[in-house]
Amino acid sequence: MRLDEYFEEIERDEAAERRELVKEKSYAITDYLEDVEHEFDRRVSDDALLGSTSPTIFVGRSSYPNVSTGVLSPVGNEERAADFETGGHWYDRGFSIEDVFQHRTGLVNSTQRAEVSNVADAWNGFLGTQREVAIADRPVDVEIGLDGPLDVDFEVSEQDVSSPTGPRTRAESATLTENPHVPQPVKKTLEDDDWRAAGAMNYLYNRGFDVYDINTILSAGALGQGANRRLVPTRWSITAVDDTVGKFLRGGLRNATAVDKTEVYYNEYLGNRFWIVLAPGNWEFELVEFKAPGSVWNPDPDRGMWIAADREGYDGRTSYVEETAGAYYAARLGVLEHLDERDRQASVLVCRHVTPDYWGPTGVWQVRESVRNAFGDEPGTAQSFGAALRELAPRLPVSLARLRRKSSMAAGVQSQLAEFG
């Protein structure tokens, strides 16, 4: 499909319109929070939270290496516990920002503090229960003994709306009330004390585990060589798995044939618009983010468009990205999965426009899923990478000249044209 026809098709795409967030900011989440608080008050007994079902865990990063480590569990929605775990099913069901916030505020975080090291044999007590929850392939029934009241703070403020969390409580104990089901590949990685974490991650990925499952297992300190196993803060584990699996996929494409034409893909979700350009050539990747004034990461309406960019060449990166953080690795993974499926490599530019409709942070999962799902339809095609940029430019929130000042790939096209002239 020619790129001009592709643009016309996007404008008629009803699915994209259904996913687009409403223009007016919605704070309906604050009404929901009152119901959540009432449910917590009703369900918590004097010294224990009974009948809870935990789908996942959380490991904090504050005060590292002495971190807060917790078991997350919904209260009053035990039969739907799996729905509360972050994953691609949120995208498939078309979750809005309010839906994401509701599921996150509906989880109580029962915590203890722990040193990240020396957890290789932590199969008893609170850490043991947490690990069992992490490695199970379905939510697990737990009973949590509370050491103090729930810290429920649902006062309405800009901070609460922009970064919602469920109530926290100090846990005196956590006990499984059923035997968790642990998949055989996970048991294999646990039993091999000589298996480095990166190899174990890639093994699980190749056995059909999505990155969401792997980062939870890594976070619980259940991967890596025995003596070196550590609790990994959840935020770090997400990026670590995206990066590790991405490097593995990139390595498998080093000798692959390049795509034979320039392809352009588009997707829009939760107020984020993604343009993905695949061009013939060896692997390189760049993410450019445009963050509109009034959006969650650029809240000052008078600041103007904020632009960030990070890239890598054929041999990848040797350092953590500076400007685009976890979004870089999430977007790169989505692209590499697509190329791996086709057994092709490409020079790749991803442009992410964060519009004012993105009024609350939902996490990098929405970047990963938006990029993954962008490849579901036929792309638009262009004669060259430069031609694709020229046709794409009117649909971006900045001029082509400004894009070239920030993007190494776009600047490279300009340099080649200048040399040719």
Automatic annotation (TrEMBL):
The keyword Cytoplasm does not apply. It holds the Pfam family Nre_C. It comes from the Archaea. GO terms for biological process: DNA repair. Signal peptide: none annotated. The keyword Transferase does not apply. Residues 159-178 have a biased composition (Polar residues). Residues 312-420 form the Archaeal Nre C-terminal domain. Residues 21-298 form the Archaeal Nre N-terminal domain. Keywords: DNA damage, DNA repair. Residues 157-184 are annotated as: Disordered. Belongs to the Nre family. Involved in DNA damage repair. This is DNA repair protein. It comes from Halococcus saccharolyticus DSM 5350.
